[in-house]
Automatic annotation (TrEMBL):
The chain crosses the membrane at residues 60-85, 97-117, 137-155, 176-196, 223-245, 301-319, 339-359. GO terms for biological process: feeding behavior. SMART domains: 7TM_GPCR_Srsx. This is Orexin receptor type 2. Belongs to the G-protein coupled receptor 1 family. One of its GO terms (cellular component) is plasma membrane. Keywords: G-protein coupled receptor, Membrane, Receptor, Transducer, Transmembrane, Transmembrane helix. It is found in: Membrane. It comes from Nephila pilipes (Giant wood spider). It comes from the Eukaryota. Signal peptide: none annotated. The lineage of its organism: Eukaryota, Metazoa, Ecdysozoa, Arthropoda, Chelicerata.
Amino acid sequence: MSILPTDPPSIIYETRWDNWTYNNSSANNTKSDCTNEYCVSDEDYLAMIEEYIFPSTYEWILISLHLTVFVVGLVGNALVCVSVYRNHSMRTVTNYFIVNLAVADFMVILICLPPTVLWDVTKTWFFGRITCKLVLYLQNVSVGVSVLTLTFISVDRWYAICHPLSFKSTASRAKTSILLIWLISVLIGLPEAIVLDTRRSLPVETTYLTDCTHTWSETSTRVYQLFLILVLYVAPFTLMAFTYYQITRVLWNKNIPGASETNHHLSRVCGNKIGGRMGAVRTTSTSCEGQIRSRRKASKMLMAVVVMFSLCYLPVHLINLLRYTAGLPQTPATTVASLLSHWLCYANSAVNPIIYNIMNGKFRKEFKNTFTCQCHISANTQAPCPTATRECMSWRTFLNGHYQSLCRCLVAV
């Protein structure tokens, strides 16, 4: 497994079973009669394996953490997609990319989290060779989609803020970029999907401790892992660091040439909208300052998403780098660190909607509307308060032993 590697069963076997006592008490048993290294019956041997793979206390804690991520991630990312779908004003270029990121996160949580957490805890792949290829391939594709989406967002924002006159961001271009993102991600994960297969490591006929692993050489595995670290972590975040540094300079420093160009562009757009009116200059200045503040808030939110992604994926990439370059030894400490790094990767898929809720007022409002069952009446609907902002809110009222929904109009202030 490339992005979320697990420890080979043979290594675990040596490090965690070394306290078990070799059974040689029976005088009738000789080394040639034994079918396993503990010289016990197959039934006892399988019982020992079942005891070994049964979750320990800290593994139950790990399972609870994954369950929390599973629920929060599915609900949160579904809300992101529903919010943009319901609110036409939110169908911006940046939000198209955010929805694409939410789809990738939803996919990895729904399809990949359950089987891989079971694999992490039991060191056993129970789902066969086809699922071995499919699940890990989709996981790599979703990670590629996530990091490339964040990269495309940063480049799009860099052009829009730092070079607004040289590139026009449109919805059609965003959709084309999203198709390109998926195509690149599909191709990046394809080599591993071809060579993944299941492998049994026990002398008895059992599914226990079956691994889902590569069938190519260790050298090929090392080269591919380092390639993924470079393409899906180092290079994208180097580019994103540059773009967001430039964006920060423009939005928070008005005295540099880039900011003047941006302000001139915004002023021209605002002036076109309100030209010919009294006080146009003052209104233009106020409107443009509002746009700059809005872009600052959006940039802060996107930078928070990028920082969280980099922090959550840093441990797993660091462990991979040390494992395939310095020969990181397998110890109980590194095993725990590896399990926690896997959880952090999944946690990142659940944290993005939380960031949107905290840092973006529109997403927060749509999330709240979804949970409070708010709906909007169309403008041509007859209503007793024609000057009101017609909004239908669901109120739970106890009437004749049943809960019913009542609607009321909220008068605009």
